[in-house]
Amino acid sequence: MGDKMSLKLKIVILIFRAVPLAVRRAVFSGLAGLAYHLSLKHRLIALHNLIRSFPKKPIDEIVDIARVSYKNFALIFAEFPEILCLDRNNIGKWVSVRGLEHYESALREGRGVVLITAHFGNWEMGLAAMALLSRPPTFVARTLDSAILEEGSIYIRSTVGIGIIHKENAMRPMLRLLKQGGAVKMLIDQNVAADEGVFINFFGRPACATPGVALMAMRSGAAVLPVFTSRMPDGTYLTEIGPKVETVYTGDRRRDVATNTQNYATIIENHIRKYPEQWLWIHQRWKTKTSQARIVTGG
Fold it and tell me: What pLDDT digit, counting tens, does each position of 150-165 carry?
C-alpha cells in the first residue's frame, strides 16, 4: 500500500477492505437510516429544503426523497475504498462515461479545464473514472477535520492519479495549473458567506454561490464543463460530461461574474431535478440571506 502511508491508515484500510462490499453497503445504509431518525436538526433541514424546492410534490414523496438522499450519501463512504482496486480495464463495471470527448476536446485547447459538479451521486467514482480513462483532473477539496481521513482520502485518490488542491487559498495554484493546460474539478453547490459570494437563483430562491469558477474562466480562458455521476437502479454509475459552457465576457466584470455563476447554478439545478434523491439536501444551501449582503456592502 505504499511506504508513505502511516501504519494506522494501513490498518484501517486493511480492516475496511476485509469487510465485503455488500456488507459495507448494508451497514452504511443502516447507519444512514439511523441518522435520519436520530438527527432531528438535519432531518428538518432536508425536509424544509425539499418542500421549498418542490412545493407541488406530496409530503410522502418528499420524505422518500430525503430518506434515499441519506442512503446515497452514506454509500459514497462504503464504496470509496473500492477505488484502490480500479484500473482502466475494470472501471467499466462500476462507471459508464458519456461525453468524454467534450473533456478531451477542451484539454486540447490548452487553456485548462474547470469541471464543475455538486455533492451529487458519487462524485468520487466519477472522478476516478475520468482519471483512469483520460488525463487525471486535480480535485479541489477542503481539508478534513480528521487527520487520518484526510490522509486516507488523499492516498486513495492518488492511486488513480488524482491530485489535490485544498480550498484554503486555492486560487493561485488553480490558475497555475490551468495555465499549464491541466484540469481541476470543483464542487460548487454549497453556501458561502455574503462577503465571499454572489447571489444567484437556485430552485426559485436567492442562494449565495462562489464566484471562483467564473473569475478563473474569465481570467484564464479555461473551458468550463459540467460533470455529474448518477447512481443507476442496478447500483452502477453513469458519469455525464457536458459540453463546454460558454463564458460570458462583456467587459462588465461584476455583471459577467453574476451571469456566469448563475449559468453554472442553473445547470446544477436542472440535473438535481432529474434525480433529486441523489443530492445532499441536509446542507443549509440557502443559509446566507440577501440582507447580509446589504450589511456587508453598507447598503
Answer: 999 999 999 999 999 9
Interval 126-158: pLDDT, tens: 999 999 999 999 999 999 989 999 999 999 999
CA distance 236 to 131: 18
Separation CA 238–CA 123 (nearest Å): 10
Q: What is the pTM of this model?
A: 0.93
Domain ranges of the chain: 7-285
